[in-house]
Structure prediction request, 451 residues.
Amino acid sequence: MSDLEDELRAVVGPAHVLVDGDLRAPYETDWTRRFTGGARCVVRPASTAEVAAVVRACAAAGAPIVVQGGNTGLVGAGVPAGGEVLVSLTRLSQLDPVDPVEAQVTAGAGVTLEKLQGHARAAGLDFGVDLAARSAATVGGMIATNAGGIRVLQHGSMRAQVAGLEAVLADGTVLTRLTGLAKDNTGYDLTQLLAGSEGTLAIVTRARLRLVPLLPARAVALVAVAGTDAALDLLAAARARLPSLSAAEIFYPDGLDLVRSYAKLPAPFADAAGAYVVLECAARTDPTDDVLEMLSTCEAVDDATVASDRAGLERLWSYRESHTEAISTAGVPTKLDVCVPLGELSALVAELPATVAAVAPAARAILFGHLNEGNLHVNVLDAGERAEEVTDAVLRLVAAHRGSISSEHGVGRAKAPWLSLSRAPEEIAAMRRIKAALDPAGLLNPGVLLD
Ligand code: MLT
Ligand code: ZN
Prediction:
């Protein structure tokens, strides 16, 4: 084996440099099975110092690196294109005690969202981001992609939770800014530059994270409405009248059918609806009466079911949260994550089926997502050989509706060729100059974001 692998073994220990194909395999294919590529080897450092030494060794050998957290990403950014050293961060799992006065905690990049949530809740606080992949998604990956999820309505995306970072640059330099000061105007905000940079500028190894109040009383409503317009009327009523509103999600009948057969769930209502909205309120005291009162006076509501006990909350959420797995069980989807201004959402939903059918007649688009942000997950099944044409047609339609080609999953490898639909040439040129300044040899996540 070459000098580089030996050097990596000296840094992380022989057990944490995986060169055998069978051992590498779980790291080389993404969760959706759509992206796959061979790594030169998989390296599993356990500290920032080890990450820095790994990066220095790779830089000296001119070996490109791909960075991976929980491998739950959906745009192919965490799997190799071919031949890179794959740096897996799951062993950076240190979680410091919660600081209750600052309401902050320092977490390693490999800490899962579920662990972080449990840790914060045990201290009487909570973490502001939540998403269905919580058992595997990691802090580092969520920062790299600026993950969104189901509580953006209440607390914003991942970057809003990040008060500081520790990160390793492409030459092995370590930047440490973990004090988490509430106010700090001392020049460029490198923390926020790295959030959402998809591992192309540095490797995030630790983060200082803001925590939010724990709101233990929750009420969830699953609401049947006539369609997207009615869903938006319901959203407007909920936002105006429910200060405790913490989530507003949408899905459609074809997604519900897939979810019901995958998760063995009963029909939620006697009659089928045009669209379904999940509303959640979170408060210190039971918000159920407020939810019922709003639902009873909102004309957009055709039918509704409300729960506030733990089993009921999980049951109603599972109609929405099982979409990803149900769709993946039906095939390998082309996953497109877009958002448009709310005023454009109905038109986008109406135009998508014909847009997809025009380039891939056998394909079907399952839509679901985060209603409050106009964020649709367009999952196209059975696109076959036409996946690229489908992507092109859908992303152009989204751009025509003044939307973004990536709402919360990132650009990755999947959408890099279409970045110019959402960013001006001047912006892309500035991004390339930042990339060249921090990673002149292009070692970190080549082909991701900027192709
Ligand atoms: C979700 O909102 O469930 C996630 O973004 C996952 C997905 O799009 O499949
Ligand atoms: Zn989502």
Notes: Residues 342-359 form the longest helix (18 residues). DSSP finds 15 helices and 17 strands in the chain. The radius of gyration is 22 Å. The mean pLDDT is 97.
